[in-house]
Amino acid sequence: MDVRSYRDLKVWQVGVELVGQIYEITRSFPKSEVFGLTSQIQRAAVSVPSNIAEGHARGSRREFLHFLTISLGSLAELETQLLIGSRVGYLEAVILDGLLRQCDELGRMLRSLQRSLQSKA
Q: Which tens digits make up the pLDDT trace of 2-25?
């Protein structure tokens, strides 16, 4: 497959899909959290595919690798915030488990893309 745009990258597509799920799930969080944990979770989730897109658009392998690292950091931040959301009773265990599995898969995809780009250097 020819990658002409970040939109062609499966890792970006999976990231955007996760964002949609995050927004759907956080709708049930208490309204008192709209400027707290809800906002932080949504921003971290949005940051993952956004940094993939920005890095790809920069046109440099080195910068793309840098932005993939930022995406991985945002993904770790998202996982932490989801665990906190579960601990304070906003997420059921079954929902948390599914989201963490998706985060793990997305992390594997990001690291695989990093390795691929590094091996081409």
A: 568 999 999 999 999 999 999 999
The 3-class secondary structure across 86-100, one letter per residue, is HHCCCCCHHHHHHHH
How many angstroms separate the CA atoms of 94 and 67, rounded?
Answer: 31
Q: Which domains does the chain have, with CATH numbers?
A: 6-119 (1.20.1440.60)
Output the furthest CA–CA distance in the chain (Å, rounded).
Answer: 48
pLDDT of res. 4: 83
Q: By three-state DSSP, how is residue 45 classified? A: helix
Question: What was the pLDDT predicted at 1?
Answer: 47
Token pair recorded at residue 65: 């690798």
- Whether residue 109 contacts residue 14, with contact meaning beta carbons closer than 8 Å, is answered with yes
**For the chain, which residues score pLDDT lower than 50?**
1
Nearest to 86 by CA among 45, 29, 40: 29
What confidence score (pLDDT) does residue 120 get? 82
User: Which residues neighbour 64 within 8 Å (Cβ) at sequence distance 6 or greater?
Assistant: 55, 56, 58, 117
**How many Cβ atoms sit within 10 Å of the Cβ of residue 64?**
21
